Amino acid sequence: MFELILFASLLIVGYIFGSIVERRHFASIREREEQMRGLPTIMLKRPLKPEEVHQYKLVNGSVVISIDYFKKFIASLVNLFGGSISSYETLVDRARREAILRMKEDAGSASEIINIRIETSSISKSAQQNIGAVEVLAYGTAIYR
Question: What is the CATH number of domain 2-144?
Fold first, then answer.
């Protein structure tokens, strides 16, 4: 009986605090994306105006974001029955957007960032290879005019 109460308590605490942290992080991301929207990031391999390039530099941004207990529980339930695991989708979305923002911050006063690439990997936390965290690396070439 004690284990069931502990499990339910962890589930509720994970849901409450995980939701609060996620909401705050999304708000921070939206605010910073708005501030950085003037810096174009494109997947083209060449600058928009190659004749004006004075300097270029490799820039990157990386982030590791952990999953909360509630989302891990929901994901394991969905794993039993199959289907889309939306709790992981928001985790990966937050990590991807944060990595791109950090890459833009690394670029400083660049005119644009070209040839961007995004790498994603999971960090396992247990012997059953459950996802404990997601690492995302965004990198590209900053163009300075």
Answer: 3.30.110.70
Residue 138 to residue 101: CA distance in whole angstroms: 9
Q: What are phi and psi of 48, to 5 degrees?
A: -65, -40
Integer Cα distance of 140 and 112 in angstroms: 10
How far apart, in whole angstroms, are the C-alpha atoms of residue 35 and residue 1?
51
What are the domain boundaries of the chain? 2-144
Q: H or E segment at 73? A: helix 69-81
For 108, left (φ over 0), alpha (ψ -120 to 50), or beta? left
3 state DSSP class of 56: strand
pLDDT in tens, 4-49: 898 888 888 888 888 898 999 999 999 999 999 999 999 999 888 8
pTM: 0.84
Task: Say how far apart CA 56 and CA 46 lie, in whole Å.
Answer: 12
Torsion angle (degrees, nearest 10) of CA 41, 43, 49, 55: 70
